[in-house]
UniProtKB/TrEMBL annotation, chain A:
Lineage, uppermost ranks: Bacteria, Pseudomonadati, Pseudomonadota, Gammaproteobacteria, Oceanospirillales
Ranges that cross the membrane: 6-29, 72-89
Protein name: DUF2160 domain-containing protein
Pfam family, one: DUF2160
Domain of life: Bacteria
Automatic annotation (TrEMBL), chain B:
ABC transmembrane type-1 domain ranges (all copies): 67-278
Protein name per UniProt: Sugar ABC transporter permease
Location within or outside the cell: Cell membrane
Pfam families associated with the record: BPD_transp_1
Organism name: Vreelandella sedimenti
Main location: membrane
Alphabetized SUPFAM superfamilies for the sequence: MetI-like
Length: 90, 295
């Protein structure tokens, strides 16, 4: 595995993604998702909202890193709030 | 909503494919992520750089210019190829030997490898021995793709239209062939005009193939490499240097693995975003409308 040049932050990142996917699977088995319409212009399932949330979180991070001098932790906090809002009301 | 009991066990059949994709895509992509946050000098000499590469890539003037060029290129060729492809599919013969002959003729450009297409057009546009270059010069038109950026752009777009419109035309042709004759009979009874038939029967029935055509053409054109590389080498200057060529120069030419990893991730996220937006928009346009006879 040394050729993959792992670092602690990237390992934490991929573990969280894997944990999210596993969590979503368990949640789906416990109570299957129902497609519904929230504040997004389209009807979405739970998995759709997670995908949209993560994709936009990536761009939030890129925006903060590239075009502001704010700390990356602010981007992470904003993304986490955004993901929760989207999962609940999106 | 249907009342069927969901059985997800069929998903297990996808497992072998998932393992393959893990080896060919997911694990390499994770490695790219790892590279993007470090300066790797050798097996035992690497330094954590955090977000530094991302910051410098996002603020690189040459890359920003290449990105804008790439977007304009993709939009221009989509705006030309999609309507042209639909048009060609509409006038293609429907049956008999003519249908087969036209299909074969139209497919020919698709069989030619990318770098060969580049070479063909490189020779075709030369002023001394190329038919097009020589012809334009004899007509008194100044045309030189190695000196004039406008000429280079027109030629690359012409080349891409020549190479890839057949794909759009073939997809649309197969979409048109799958419309039952009863729709046309009903339209004739209603005395529908040709435009009405196109607007309310053919175009709605083509939506699915058009989604595939737009997605394929967007992704292809957004990753275009060999054709402009062979034709113009990215020149004159950097007038036709697209994203993949900038990336190759950085990753293979200069061996800057960290910056190019960061850059490829940004590139990947943009493609993912645009493809998702295209797909969702077109699929939802279809969903909102009341179904036309079980479409």
């Amino acid at each position: 595995m040394s050729w993959m040049v792992w670092t602690v932050p990237t390992a934490i990142f991929f573990s969280s993604i894997a944990a999210m996917l596993a969590g979503m699977t368990v949640w789906e088995i416990m109570s299957p998702t129902i497609e519904r319409k929230g504040f997004l212009p389209i009807a979405t399932t739970r998995g759709d909202r997670l995908f949209i949330g993560l994709l936009f979180a990536a761009f939030i991070h890129l925006g903060v890193i590239g075009f502001t001098s704010l700390s990356i932790w602010i981007a992470l906090a904003v993304s986490a709030v955004w993901l929760l809002v989207l999962m609940r009301w999106g | 909503m249907n009342n069927k009991i969901p059985n997800n066990r069929a998903w297990l059949l996808v497992l072998p494919m998932l393992v393959l994709v893990a080896f060919s895509a997911i694990i390499p992509l994770m490695t790219v992520v790892n590279y993007s946050v470090q300066d790797v000098l050798g097996p035992n000499a690497r330094f954590f750089t955090g977000t530094e590469w991302f910051q410098s890539m996002l603020n690189d003037d040459a890359l920003q210019a290449a990105f804008l060029r790439q977007i304009s290129f993709s939009l221009i060729i989509l705006a030309i190829q999609i309507p042209l492809g639909i048009g060609i599919a509409l006038i293609m013969p429907k049956r008999g030997w003519q249908a087969s002959a036209v299909l074969i003729l139209i497919t020919l450009p698709l069989l030619i490898p990318w770098n060969v297409v580049g070479s063909i057009w490189q020779i075709f546009t030369r002023g001394d021995i190329g038919l097009m270059g020589w012809g334009l010069r004899e007509l008194g038109i100044e045309y030189n793709i190695t000196r004039n950026a406008g000429d280079a752009w027109v030629t690359i777009i012409l080349m891409d239209v020549w190479h890839w419109t057949p794909l759009v035309a073939m997809l649309c042709y197969s979409g048109l062939r799958s419309i039952p004759e009863a729709y046309y009979q009903a339209a004739r009874i209603d005395r529908a005009s040709k435009w009405a038939v196109f607007r309310y029967i053919q175009l709605p029935k083509l939506t699915n193939v058009l989604v595939i055509a737009v997605l394929l053409r967007f992704m292809h054109s957004f990753m275009i490499y060999a054709e402009p590389f062979v034709l113009t080498g990215g020149g004159p200057g950097s007038a036709t240097t697209f994203l993949s060529q900038s990336l190759t120069t950085m990753a293979v030419g200069q061996q800057d693995l960290g910056p190019s990893a960061a850059f490829s991730l940004i590139y990947f996220l943009v493609i993912l975003l645009v493809s998702w937006v295209f797909y969702t928009t077109i699929m939802n346009m279809q969903k909102d409308k009341p179904p036309h006879g079980g479409a």
